[in-house]
Amino acid sequence: MSHFGRSGPPDIKDTYSLLVLNITFRTTADDLFPLFDKYGKVVDIFIPRDRKTGDSRGFAFVRYKYADEAQRAVERLDGRNVDGRDIMVQFAKYGPNAEPIQKGRIVETSPKTRGRSRSRSPGRYRNDYRGRSHRRSRSRSRDRYDRYDRDRYRERYRSRERDYRRRSRSRSLSPDHRGRYDDDYRRSRSRSFESASPPRRSLSPRSPSPRRSESADESPVKRRERLPLSRSVSPRGRHLDSRSPSPGN
DNA sequence: GTTGAGCGTT
Q1: Which positions on chain B have an atom < 7 Å from some protein CB?
Q2: Closest residue, CA to C1' of B9
Q3: For the segment A44-92, what is each residue's pLDDT rounded down to a tens digit?
Q4: From CA A50, how far away is CA A56, in angstroms rounded?
């Protein structure tokens, strides 16, 4: 899992953001890191996700430390075939705070004018860039959900990176590209990435509540009774009730 | 399990 974006933007003081479009919905930040890190120092990778489904929205933000390296990555990775789709890499035009940025870098407001001059309201920034594009729907099949999600913010974030890596890397991709990526990936992760991505599956000892119902449903053994009244069952009672083998987790 | 123009978060 990626250590990027674990607690918000780390340091965007002098970084250059790149917008990566047309990536697959299963591509994670860990998949993009070995590609982009080859052309420079990547300080952050962020993939916006849907509020409700938690799925990737199909694009990512890669922040470089230096502009020339970011430019290099744009020239090299733009149009590259990643996971079967040609990605589009370009400099971000808007910052995390919806502020227009120049060549991927946050526009520098003069320290002098930033002191007392507050003749501009912070809300105008968002309205500025939102105005050009009224609709922000990503996909037509999700427009109907956006209506409810637009005024409903009770959506809770699920896990940041789900088990998207279940896909096999050697599926139908051209081994030529993947080979180079992986080859450099081995060398790249030798510096500090190996410590940041520990085990691929290390779940907390805390039992996942929502998953248990599914496992019980698909369990080969028939569940005898649901015992709707005994919802608040003690751990000991549940053991006698389900007596099902461990679902795996 | 699907989708495909676009600009971002504990």
Answers
A1: 2-10
A2: A8
A3: 999 999 888 888 999 999 999 999 999 999 999 999 999 999 999 999 9
A4: 6
CB A230 under 7 Å to nucleic chain B = no
Q: Are A9 and A44 in contact (CB under 8 A)?
A: yes
Q: Cα(A61)–Cα(A44) distance, rounded to whole angstroms?
A: 8
Distance from CA(A66) to C1'(B3), angstroms, rounded: 35
The two structure tokens encoding residue A60: 């990512």
The reply to whether A90 has its C-beta less than 7 Å from any atom of strand B is: yes
pTM: 0.53
Using the C1' atom of nucleotide B3, identify the protein residue whose alpha carbon is closest: A139
DSSP A232: S
Which residues does A86 contact at the CB level (< 8 Å), separation at least 6? Answer: A22, A79, A80
